Amino acid sequence: MKEDNVILLVEDCSEDASLVLRAFKKWGITNPIRVIPDGEEAVDYLAGNGHYADREEYPLPCLALLDLNLPQMSGFDVLEWRRSQADLNNLPVVILSGTKNRDDLDKAHRLGAVACVVKSQDLSELYDLIQHLNYVALAFDHKSNMEWFPET
Known about the structure:
Strand order of the largest sheet: 2-1-3-4-5
Order of helices and strands: EHEHEHEHEHH
Number of strands: 5
Shape: globular
CATH topology: Rossmann fold
């Protein structure tokens, strides 16, 4: 079954992933969300490697939410790899990380992240960002239209 407008959440902490999923549900965001636990698997998903080769089952996402501190391969490494993939240049990547280190956030921006959000229990900053994601999608002219239906 093909899913459109998939969001890829790359997060190794199951509690943080659950928090994001609950927040998206609360906000009325109906996009299917794929949770990937580490950087290497995120690259495999985006590259269509291994069992991710079936793009009907594992379509390219319209948005990626990426933690920086991941096992196997860091979020920085994922951003760097993505930067070398011409077919992924239009994929908006939002960093969702526990770090408040300005140098890390600046580095993520230099590597192509469109925004950085510091994790917190209420995720209000992420909610504010999501309110503007349709604009981000249009600005990046991604092949897939993002359809957001957050509650107002």
